[in-house]
Amino acid sequence: MSRKKVTNGQVRGIARKRMAILVRMSEEEALRGNLERAKRYMGLARRISVRTKVPMPEGALYCRRCSAPLVPGLNCRVRLRNHRIGTHCLECGSVRRRPYLRETKERRTCREER
Ligand SMILES: [Zn+2]
After folding, report:
1. How many Å apart are CA 21 and CA 41, to the nearest integer?
2. Is the pTM of this model over 0.85?
């Protein structure tokens, strides 16, 4: 039995497509209120990401701890504080903080121009 060789590039393409599908399905399930299934789908997408070393699709919001897709107003709270974006997962209570330096810098340069 001979197996057809699949190149790394092909693997990446397949991974990207399947991750996009899983992320979309996960968000749809979350909106339907089926969070267990949503977490499962997001978990599968993350597993593909780890195995293939392909980053998760851009714009996919998910909790690093419980893999729940984060939909603002449904299961996550987004707050700005101390020049940081705080994203709270309301499923497991984990918080993720990320600075927004670029926007702050832009505002500063605007002020200097005046
Ligand atoms: Zn969580």
Report:
1. 9
2. no
